[in-house]
Write a structure and sequence with these properties.
Layout: E1 2-8, E2 11-18, E3 23-30, E4 33-37, H1 46-50, E5 56-60, H2 66-69, E6 79-83, H3 93-96, H4 98-101, E7 113-116, E8 119-123, E9 126-132, E10 141-144, E11 148-152, H5 170-184, E12 192-195, E13 201-202, H6 203-209, H7 211-215
Parallel strand pairs: 4-5, 5-6, 6-7, 11-12
Antiparallel strand pairs: 1-2, 2-3, 3-4, 8-9, 9-10, 10-11, 12-13
Bound molecules: zinc ion.
């Protein structure tokens, strides 16, 4: 249920697949800090299961669909790192789709948000790039830490995020895929793609297995 998917230079990433609909929640331990990416239900129990010490914890959100934000309020008032484009869905059930698909109206109580800028961000001494690839939602954010990228529901190992939801846009997705393909040419083949659902893969495997990268 909880497994280590990356370990190098005192950095560790754990992946868990959590309710309500099998979201990939990641724990990234980096320089005494813990980043919890897309917390599903019960994700607040994960740090204790790992048992690794950390100074402080931030929640990172790739996009605000209900399955990726469902565990936020279990972390009390932890800082939420999110782009401006993804922010509205935290507090709007129409945007986070909880009203349509989640079996209830989800409105996150935690307002302790810190807006990430596009491009380079340094948070608690950890640097990473933030990009928006709209299509699945208007605010699909990708976080590039160098040897690994969190891609949310923008792109999976062999598929892409659905574009038939409210606020999705298939034409925007096509443009995003083109842009991302270009971006990948700057990455190492062994860099890791950590998506919001299904399997982790390398950049090389993504380019090999994902038919949408050659389609658009
Ligand atoms: Zn989604």
């Amino acid at each position: 249920m909880l497994r280590c998917v990356y370990e190098q230079d005192n950095m560790m990433i754990y992946k868990a697949v959590l309710p309500p609909v099998g979201v990939n929640t990641y724990l990234l331990y980096m320089q005494d800090h813990l980043f919890v990416i897309d917390p599903g239900i019960t994700s607040a129990e994960l740090p204790e299961m790992v048992g690794r010490s950390y100074q402080d914890l931030s929640i990172v959100i790739t996009h605000s669909h209900f399955d990726h934000i469902a565990g936020i309020d279990d972390f009390d008032h932890a800082e939420i790192l999110i782009t401006q484009a993804a922010l509205p869905g935290l507090y709007d059930p129409a945007i986070n789709l909880s009203g349509d698909l989640g079996g209830g109206m989800m409105i996150i109580k935690n307002k302790n948000t810190r807006i990430l800028s596009l491009g380079e961000n340094t948070i608690h001494g950890c640097s990473f790039q933030v990009m928006i690839f709209p299509g699945h939602t208007q605010g699909d954010s990708v976080f590039d830490f160098g040897p690994f990228l969190f891609t949310g529901d923008f792109i999976f190992s062999d598929s892409i995020g659905r574009t038939d939801f409210r606020f999705s846009n298939h034409d925007a997705m096509k443009q995003s895929i083109k842009k991302f393909k270009n971006y990948l040419s700057k990455k190492q083949p062994s860099d890791l793609i950590l998506p919001g659902h299904m399997n982790v893969c390398t950049v090389e495997e993504l380019l090999d297995q994902n038919p949408f990268l050659s389609l658009y």
